[in-house]
Design brief:
Layout (H helix, E strand, L loop, with lengths): L1 E2 L16 E2 L2 E2 L18 E8 L3 E5 L3 E12 L9 E9 L6 E12 L4 E10 L4 E10 L14 E2 L4 E7 L2 E8 L9 E9 L11 E6 L10 E3 L5 E6 L8 E6 L4 E9 L5 E5 L3 E2 L5 E7 L7 E8 L3 E9 L5 E6 L5 E9 L8 E2 L3 E5 L1
Parallel strand pairs: 1-19, 5-12, 21-28
Antiparallel strand pairs: 2-3, 4-6, 6-9, 7-8, 7-10, 8-9, 10-11, 10-12, 13-14, 14-17, 15-16, 15-18, 18-19, 20-22, 22-25, 23-24, 23-26, 26-27, 26-28
Length: about 350
Amino acid sequence: MTAGGWRSQGWAALAASVALVLGAVVAPAASAVPAKVNSPDPALTITNVTLGRTSVAVSGLNTVAVPVTVVGGYATTDANPIYLNVFLNRSGGSGPVRQMVAGLLTLDSGTVQSGTWKGFLYVPSTANGTFTVTGVMSGQIIDGSDGSMTTPTPFAGPNLAVTGLHLPKIGVSIIPKVVPFGSAYTARVAITDSATGKAYGSRINVQITWDNLCVEHDGDRYLTNTSGIVDRAYPAAAGDALNCVRLRGRSFDTAGLGWSVSRPGIVSAAPSKTSARVGTIVPVNGTVAGIASGCPVILQRLYGATAWRAVSQDVVRQSGRFTVLAQPPYAGNLIYRVYFPRCGRYQAGYSTSFVIRGI
């Protein structure tokens, strides 16, 4: 998303990670992290997974604790405790959360090799819809940030129907709307009740961060006012990275919003020669500031006093450079410029005009 003015969007744009940080396992959205090869832990066997409830209703910023029980075993002689994490994926409905995790289940009875683990799934309103238990993973770090490529051990478990009411909605306004290169900026975050459009009336703990902290670990924490609004000042370096807001739950993010700031379209261009015989092709080389690879650039020639017409086109290379081609159609001074149309988060822009003399 390009941010400027109040914006909001679904959870898919911001993918939370699956890292255990400070006692909270964080579950990913499907688009967050590159897919791993299916590689469950061969030491883990799962016999059964049960949920203490088949349906829940959740409103606003609240969560409902659903008991989770796992019967299974882990083949190890290590004396350290084994934690289990139960994954539930969306199987119906349209709520913003696509995956939930019941994190850090502890051994309740039996042995690690053959025992029963218990814990809770803390269900948010944003899980509105139906979820199905799909797998179990051991450990305290489950996102691969420790170098592990282990994936959950598949298990087809029970369903949980969630009725979500008064879901939180996240909006962001970037100040200034178009952020100059090398400049700091501010993100103003507003969290409201999507059903009423009003604030919840309480202070909300949010993470407003950037770069890798949008998809792993804990980010920078801020507290809204009772109107649900909080500002975060970003350094200039954050302008070329993913920015995000995360609402953290016990074991996964319950809502989030990601964006990229708008940038000006800054174009420079110069012809390889300032005069050429009529009909000769003259390369015009230039650059577009930022990371605008794949965006189009158009060479325009001035017709008459005010009419600019396209005569050549290229796309910006990964280096930020481009080459368009001029071809003087007659003898005399011909005025050109390069036009950069709005592309993604980059605004439209023009190079300084220049002259190629046809001879």
